[in-house]
Amino acid sequence: MEVMMENLLIGVIYFIGVITLYYLISSKLLGELRSKKVIPHGTTHELEVMLKWLFIGLGIFGLVVVLINIDMLALLLITILVIFSLISKDIIESAMYYHFLVVTKAISHGEYVIMTRGIRGWIRRLTPLYVELSGEQGEIIRIPNKLVASEPIRIPAKALPLTIVIKLYLEKLDDIESLNKAVQEVVNFTKRHAIVPPRFRIRTITTNSVEYEITYGISNPESSNIIIKKVAQRLQQLFKEGVKFEVKREHSIINKL
């Protein structure tokens, strides 16, 4: 009877330990991942349900093992630890790399980085699982922390160029100087969104069209969208009749200014 009570006490302690571990993982770890938007809310709920039933199963199984054969409990705990370490190996490794990136400040929010694999963009945020970049075309790029921490990364010292091409269509090209002044007005109107003064040049001239190239020095992806919008807005104000235009962005963020 006394042995049975001891086994039951051990079983209760084991069950409490399982519940505590479940609470730490579901409330603390998953809560932090959800608050940092590392994983979507719906996915977090699914993981919580899965963990709940997993730990309930472990708790009940552990109690049964204790009541039947206390010696099997040690083997059960070792098995659980081995399985848990194998499952969480990548997560733990990623968290360690995250800690390394944060402590060493190898990269920081807002920096433009170029990786050896050709991946490039502005750092939006660092998470325990990945680094999120905003690409040159506005796309979201997520790179595992291990890849970021283990590969050489180039951080340009200066602003990178954004090239915008403006093509003006006219019935007849007879006053290039007035067009140059208009483009200069566009440059002046948008230069406050660049950290390096923009410059423009004529690319091509035909009998009824002129193509201009404007290069800006920018430091964040949001500026490129603002500049394009402002360029189109100013052109529309300057050329209300007789002139059609098109504005496009070139994939030119390669070399630093």
UniProtKB/TrEMBL annotation:
<keyword id="KW-1133">Transmembrane helix</keyword>
<protein>
    <recommendedName>
        <fullName>Small mechanosensitive ion channel protein MscS</fullName>
    </recommendedName>
</protein>
<dbReference type="InterPro" id="IPR045275">
    <property type="entry name" value="MscS_archaea/bacteria_type"/>
</dbReference>
<feature type="transmembrane region" description="Helical">
    <location>
        <begin position="7"/>
        <end position="25"/>
    </location>
</feature>
<keyword id="KW-0812">Transmembrane</keyword>
<keyword id="KW-0472">Membrane</keyword>
<feature type="transmembrane region" description="Helical">
    <location>
        <begin position="54"/>
        <end position="87"/>
    </location>
</feature>
<dbReference type="GO" id="GO:0008381">
    <property type="term" value="F:mechanosensitive monoatomic ion channel activity"/>
</dbReference>
<dbReference type="InterPro" id="IPR010920">
    <property type="entry name" value="LSM_dom_sf"/>
</dbReference>
